[in-house]
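Much of our argument rests on the idea that a fold can be written as discrete symbols. Part of our work consisted of pairing the sequence of a single chain with a tokenised description of its backbone. The amino acid sequence and the backbone structure tokens for this protein are reproduced below.
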Amino acid sequence: MRSLIRLTTLATVAVIAGCQSMATANDAPATIVNASELSHAALQLTIDNVLLTHVVIAEGALTESSWLTIDRNSPIGIDKQPTQGRNMEMPIRFQLVMNNGVCILVDQRDDSRYVLQDTECVAE
């Protein structure tokens, strides 16, 4: 009975993994077109929610390239000044893709996907 449960679980995982890879097969790198306050707010809200902090996003972000790179600020010392030295943390990268007419922001750290509401994009 245990082996039947394990086999069923493995089959379910394989099907789910297959569906996820099929869903991304239609992804095409994209850029935002007809950028508006609503599309910028949608991008801003998505990034803030993913990173659990407020990040300043440029008005023209993702309008010329499908890539968005976010560098971390330098750590602040006890004297309230940025510490000296290099920040060795990797920047956070997102890619905008279009899949079946939907604009999706993909977090490159874990391939998580976020639909951008009120945003129009076109494949690069």
User: Anything to note?
Assistant: The two ends are 51 Å apart (CA to CA).
